[in-house]
Amino acid sequence: MNQEADALLESLLDSLLNDFNHWFKRGQELLAACPDSVMTPDERDVMRVRIDEGLKAIAATRALVNATPAAMAVSMEAMTPWHQLVIEVWGLAGRISKANAKNSI
Fold first, then answer.
1. Closest CA to 103 of 43, 47, 41, 38
2. How far apart are the C-alpha atoms of 83 and 96, rounded to whole Å?
3. Which residues, other chains included, contact 33 with Cβ-Cβ below 8 Å and sequence gap of 6+?
4. SS3 label, residue 22
5. pTM exceeds 0.85 for this model
6. What spatial distance separates the first Cα and last Cα of the chain, rounded to whole Å?
7. Series of mean pLDDT values for 10-residue runs along the chain (105 residues)
8. What proportions of the chain, in percent to the nearest 5, are helix, strand and coil?
9. Of 8, 33, 86, 103, which has the maximum CB count within 10 A?
10. DSSP letter assigned to residue 7
11. How far apart (Å, rounded) are the C-alpha atoms in residues 57 and 17?
């Protein structure tokens, strides 16, 4: 039973880390295409640094998970900033979409 629980935990954590990685990479793409009317270059630089740090944190977490023989979890305290950043990426996507819609009218 413990092996099944460990496998489930590993699977869930892997899926979660994949999601964070996806959205952080999507954030990089959005920042590259973001018009100044949506976010200033300085604001983009700040968000870009945060996304880069998030990607590094995900890579470090994966390395720890892979180096640990037993299943492990990541605390909500550690993931909260990642969740916040994903929400900001979603918001940026919406703002860019809205700006693009205004410009196409």
1. 38
2. 20
3. 96
4. helix
5. yes
6. 59
7. 83 95 98 96 98 97 90 90 98 96 81
8. 85, 0, 15
9. 86
10. H
11. 10
